[in-house]
Amino acid sequence: MASADLPAGLLDALRQAGRVVFLTGAGVSAESGVPTFRDALTGLWARFRPEELATPEAFRRNPQLVWDWYRERRRQVAAVAPNPAHCAIATLQARLPHTLLVTQNVDGLHQRAGSVDAVEFHGNLFTNRCRGCGHTAPQGDPQLAAPPPCPECGELMGPGVVWFGEAIPGEALERAWRGASEADIVLAIGTSGLVTPAASLPEVARQGGALVVEVNLQPTPLSAQADFVVTGPAAQSLPAIVAVL
Ligand code: APR
Fold this sequence. Notes:
Elements: H1 10-16, E1 20-24, H2 26-30, H3 50-53, H4 56-61, H5 63-78, H6 84-95, E2 99-103, H7 109-112, E3 119-120, E4 123-130, E5 136-138, E6 157-161, H8 170-182, E7 185-189, H9 201-207, E8 211-216, E9 228-231, H10 234-244
Parallel strand pairs: 1-2, 1-7, 2-3, 7-8, 8-9
Antiparallel strand pairs: 4-5, 4-6
The structure holds adenosine-5-diphosphoribose.
């Protein structure tokens, strides 16, 4: 995408914004080749539904099966690299006076691209979390064959991601909602806007007076709230913004 294709007024709005919030979803990682949550259900895993692999009940029922699936996802994600969309967001965060990155992605690619202090709304694939006491720790050996016991309570530890039916970590929710309510502009990038409560963040920002920008390949339920819509691959449109900001 050329910078000339960016919506009129967007660059001025970004330059004048004091507080900028980025909300990212799987579309930002798509061009790194990260299989989306549903893409990962292929091959040996095709016969499973997400609810059989990504819920507390599934982990209680068959911890080894769930662990094996996440070990495969960790292997896949560790093998890819941040793409120009991640790098552009990290550059914007370095250039703009006050930004907050809220990501629904669990792949850690924003951090590998240089973003710091990201709010990981759905956790991080490369950590472990105990469903008994909540203890969280780095994943340790990525090829650990079985879920490790929690050092605090002895329960089995699963991946540190937020499963269907689990609450968003309190600190993540509080930081995201505070940032959105204080924002001057929010950019919803590569998210379908279907999964709550993350999908409500742009509306929280808009009610606080923020402008809403959507960066996506196609319209989503967020498009109607957007003041600016940038249609195209994030790995092209975000660098185009960086190039002229
Ligand atoms: N550039 C911009 N947008 C893109 C690109 C791209 N290259 N590729 C895909 N998209 C858009 C799609 O059009 C879609 O709107 O990214 C969005 C991806 O939507 P989802 O796969 O639903 O991802 P996300 O919105 O992050 O889902 C939220 O649901 O799957 C669960 O917990 C998982 O965090 C995830 C949550």
